[in-house]
Amino acid sequence: MNEMHKTGSLPDRVQAVRDALAAQSLDALIIFDPHNIRYLCGFTGEDSCLVVRPEEIILVSDFRFRLQARAEAPLARLLEVDDTVAKALPEALTGLSGGVGVESSFLTLARWADVDEALAHMPHRPVKGVVEKQREVKSPDEIDRCRAAGELAAQTMAQLTRMRVVGRTEREVALEMEMWARQRGSGPMPFDYIVAAGPRGAMPHGVASHAVIQPRCLLVVDIGVALDGYTSDMTRTFATGPLTSREQEMYEVVLAAQEKGRAAATHGAAAVEVDRAARAVIEAAGMGDL
User: Fold this and answer.
1) What residue spans define the domains of the chain?
2) Which residues in the chain belong to E strands, given as ranges?
3) Beta bridge partners of 29
4) Which of the 8 DSSP states describes residue 9?
5) Helix, strand, or coil (residue 119)
6) Do residues 34 and 226 touch, judged by C-beta distance below 8 A?
7) CATH number of 3-135
């Protein structure tokens, strides 16, 4: 295990990216994804990019983020631009003779065209997955942050059991849960909270609506929080009254499927294998089409 995986320090992360670039015969990488920028230098602003060079990292941004960049990303040299970020790239890449990788997964076609034009004088090509590959293995600090995000999500979901939901709209319940999470440290929600009652719960990504939650129905709730750049996600189904015999049967089947899936989720197991283990229980109960 390399040092980046042990400490997760920013210099180690940057060096791991440099090593990956060298393996692809690239001198530099231009990064646009805000998550990857934050991962490598700590900066959380928008409309910027990060250039990883052999000897330094350069944050390309505008005057709006001058103070923020200095506070959050002291290891990066700030290149302040008056025009577009793309037009500043030649300056950020001055002196390099090798190829340049351009992180492509976050770019729109229009922005890629701007970057392509700005770098017409030097060899460059789109690349993807360089930083994401490094992020796959979490450092102990990252694991702690993920755990904290998961704990806050669990606490937010538990708060629902203490709330009045019957007679209120789905949106009212979703908003109260979001406020509760934000008041306890969550950043902007990673996605719109899903609160879907009755038949609306069959929509996997049903947006909370003005529908009033009725008694004796099933209520699907899907929430998440964001802490220190790491997010969590939790989905639960609640009953607003006693279950029917059919609903009780479905609950028991889903519980058994979940237990089989958890048992199959061992080190080295492929996600498809875990899915297959859980799905087999549901299909055996004759509920595979539900």
Assistant:
1) 3-135, 140-242, 243-290
2) 26-31, 49-52, 57-61, 77-80, 99-103, 124-127, 194-197, 218-223, 226-227, 230-231, 234-239
3) 52, 101
4) -
5) coil
6) no
7) 3.40.350.10
Model pLDDT, residue 82: 93
Structure tokens at 267: 């080190």
Query: Would you say 213 and 19 are in contact if contact means Cβ atoms under 8 Å apart?
Result: no
Fold of 140-242: Creatine Amidinohydrolase (3.90.230)
Cβ atoms of 240 and 213 within 8 Å: the answer is yes
Distance of alpha carbon 81 from alpha carbon 61, whole angstroms = 6
Residue with tokens 């393996």: 23
pTM of the model: 0.86
Six token digits for residue 286: 């004759």
For residue 267, the tally of other CB atoms under 10 A from its CB is: 4
Type of residue at 152: L
- What are the counts of helices (DSSP H) followed by strands (DSSP E) for the chain? 11, 11
- 241: burial class by Cβ within 10 Å (0-12, 13-18, 19+)? exposed
Q: Is 195 exposed, middle or buried (0-12, 13-18, 19+ CB in 10 A)?
A: buried
Look up residue 160 and give its two tokens: 């629902």
pLDDT mean values, one per 10 residues, the chain (290 residues): 56 96 97 97 97 98 97 98 95 95 95 96 96 94 97 98 97 98 96 96 92 97 96 96 96 97 97 97 94
Q: Give strand pairing partners of 237.
A: 220
- Cβ count within 10 A of residue 142: 17
